């Protein structure tokens, strides 16, 4: 075996060992999420929003389905209907989803800037074990509440992709659907939410 072949085998072995270790320890989601967070910072994944949308334009959007029951991390039941009249940031995510993990720091920053009586946040985990989502949220130090479904998901929110984010305006119209990760911690997006009140 020549020197170059031996060097290549060692490089492949080390790379394979690192990848295998990441998968066996479950750290691959965190690592891939970290890499994708860098991609988010480029602005390529920003949701397409029209900041100056008028209420007439917004009224052309479909009505949101508020028929959804949720359970929060404290075990309390929350009806989406209770949020009617507020702008709702509704994100479907999972702890095992690297793009979901990548967008969480930006969502948490936006949450801290926008939380209040006029904007509600539904961070809906689709993890099979809801405790994983609760533990993830605590471990990362995120301030937003996490939820799981207490019943069925209305068909208008069914998506083959996660993360998927829905924005509902204060009049109950579905103002935005964004499939895939997004950088929501931008001034443009915050202005978009403010204009939906």
Automatic annotation (TrEMBL):
Pfam families with a match to the protein in the record: Redoxin (PF08534)
Per the record's keyword annotation, is Lipid metabolism included, yes or no?
Answer: no
Taxonomic path: Bacteria, Pseudomonadati, Bacteroidota, Flavobacteriia, Flavobacteriales
Among CDD domains, the record links this protein to: TlpA_like_family
Record keywords: Membrane, Transmembrane, Transmembrane helix
Q: Per the record's keyword annotation, is Transmembrane helix included, yes or no?
A: yes
The organism sits in which domain of life?
Answer: Bacteria
* Gene3D superfamilies according to UniProt: Glutaredoxin
Q: Which GO terms describe its molecular function?
A: oxidoreductase activity
Location of the Thioredoxin domain: 40-197
**Protein name per UniProt:** TlpA family protein disulfide reductase
Which parts pass through the membrane? 12-35
Q: Which organism is it from?
A: Gillisia hiemivivida
